[in-house]
Amino acid sequence: MPAGSPSASAVRRDRTEKIALFRYQLIRAAADAAVTTRQRGPMVRDLAAMVHPGPFGGTVTVSKDTIDRWIRAWRRGGFDALKPRSRAQGAVTPAQILALAATLKRERPARTSAQVRRIMMDTLGDAPSESTLLRHFRTLELPTGVRDVFGRFEADYPNEMWVGDALHGPKINGRKAYLFAFLDDHTRVVTAGRWAYAEDSVRLTAALRPALEARGVPGTIYVDNGSAFVDESLSRTCAKLGIRLTHSAPYRPQGRGKIERFFNTVTSQFLNEITTIDSKTGEVDAGVGSMVTSLDEMNALFTSWVEMVYHQAVHSTTGQSPLQRWDASWVGQKPVRKSREEIAEAFRWSAIRTVTKSATVSLQSNTYQVDQLLVGKRVELVYDPFDLAGLITVSAGNGVPAGVAVLSEIRRHVHKKAATAAADEAETGAKNAVSGIDYLRLVEDRHKGTMAGEPISFAKASTAKRPAVVFVPTAQEAVR
User: What pTM, to 2 d.p., does this model score?
Assistant: First the structure.
């Protein structure tokens, strides 16, 4: 591949993005504006002493001066300022060092990570940090002699940390449903919640994106290692919005108790009131309550239950309902918000295309007009997969901006991968109840009345078409 070819440029752009993402994830905690200069020093020294997974595999170490330089760049120019201007590679720590540490641990399992480090320092003059050794021993399932501490943790303020996870639910029309949910750690407010037919990054995006618009941008998102949560698209989204993305260690659920308890509540209070039915075969599950035959119904009922039941119930630990605690915690301060344009940009996808002789490019069977000067060149299109008729920016070689792609002929409004998520709710469903008491329908009617500012009669059952499923900001949020 010639060094100056368009393909080589695309490879360089991808490499640059990955390096910037690696740098961002490394410095994010130390670069936080809430961290004082006195606190930052030890944090940077610890980072410099650690061995980090490299952006392209292997491990790397980074000097204190380099970390300080990256922090200054991040504060000055955000994510883009972390992109390298020229090729750079941190010093690599040989794998043999970690192998030696494992050997020392295996020959005497009672050795602590501190003792192993002392032995290596005495014999080699260098060694990974204790925390790095501890993680390495745990990865190898070697005894560490350190007891797990599952003490209660709580964020100090709202939007400091959202905890996310996915819950496996019942089958609807023969297809398994999954709930993507995010919980604000301080208030227990459900910032995002959406049922889907697949546990993938597209459905995760569909849940998270409107939550960021409605509730603000959290400082940290804490998730497990499910495939949707380790997808590179989530890492890039968080990096673009300045969110610290943290993954829990496998089988080590510290800090995840609240979301797990919420899922227990969903199961006992919501799913137990659901009866799923296959609209094609007529097969009904063994449950009682609201009869559900589509995700549209499932999401509408779930949103109403969250807003009218879960958010209103007093929490045993805080002594407040999640919504009361959320509103009270924002007195005198405002959540960090990003514009719709900034959020949309963070969730964009990209594609490489060659411009035809007629100065057009094709994307998902759609045709777009670009600048005549780009004829015959390979360009990068950056677009919203959920809105192919919207803004599509064009970049030429080396990421040089080259205007926008103007829609000429449209056959798809949504990317085919994103369309599967949109189609999840395109079903029509029954609205009848299994028994005489349809609890969740009554909750839904009450929710609709609250949104419309009208009193609700529980003697009436609504048959109107449901609105789009969104979490509506409270009155206090609306004025922020």
Answer: 0.60
At 381, list the tokens. 């299109």
User: Cα–chain-centroid distance for residue 421?
Assistant: 16
Tokens of 16: 């640059």
For residues 251, 255, 261, 266, the Cα torsion angle rounded to the nearest 10 degrees is: -90
Between CA 309 and CA 264 the distance in angstroms is 15
What are the residue boundaries of the structural domains of the chain, listed by start?
6-82, 95-139, 349-422
What radius of gyration, in Å, describes the C-alpha atoms of the chain? 26
Q: What is the pLDDT of residues 92-131, one digit of tens each?
A: 356 788 888 888 888 777 677 777 777 777 666 678 887 7
The token pair at 319 is 């002594």
Work out whether strand 401-404 and strand 393-395 pair parallel, antiparallel, or are unpaired: antiparallel
User: Which pLDDT score is estimated for 63?
Assistant: 87
Q: Which CATH number fits domain 349-422: 2.40.128, 2.30.30, 2.60.40, 1.10.238?
A: 2.30.30
H/E segment holding residue 165: strand 161-172
Strand 59-60 to strand 360-363: parallel, antiparallel, or no bridges (unpaired)?
Answer: unpaired
Question: Treating both helix axes as pointing N-terminal to C-terminal, what angle do 130-139 and 95-107 enclose, rounded to 10 degrees?
Answer: 70
pLDDT of residue 458: 28
Helices (H) and strands (E) counted in the chain, each on its own, are: 15, 16
Show the 3-state SS of 341-363: HHHHHHCCEEEEEECCCCCEEEE
Distance CA 417, CA 204 (A): 13
Angle at alpha carbon of residue 417, lines to 236 and 218, rounded to 5°: 30
d(CA 97, CA 38): 32
Question: How is residue 438 written in tokens?
Answer: 């349809």
How many Cβ atoms from other residues are within 10 Å of residue 186's Cβ? 21
Q: Is residue 446 a contact partner of residue 304, using CB atoms and an 8 Å limit?
A: yes
Which residue intervals of 158-269 are DSSP H helices? Answer: 201-215, 232-241, 257-265
Tell me whether residue 197 is exposed, middle or buried, using C-beta atoms within 10 angstroms of its C-beta: 0 to 12, 13 to 18, 19 or more: buried
What's the token pair of residue 26? 């490394």
204 three-state secondary structure: helix
Q: What is the rounded CA–CA span in Å between residue 226 and residue 224? A: 6
* pLDDT for res 49: 86
**What is the rounded distance in angstroms from the CA atom of residue 380 to the CA atom of residue 396?**
6
Residue 89 has a pLDDT of 40
Q: How far is CA 360 from CA 101, 357, 366, in A?
A: 58, 7, 10
For the chain, which ranges sit under pLDDT 70?
A: 1-11, 85-94, 110, 122-125, 144-152, 250-255, 278-290, 421-480
Query: Which pLDDT value is given to residue 145?
Result: 57
pLDDT at 443: 58
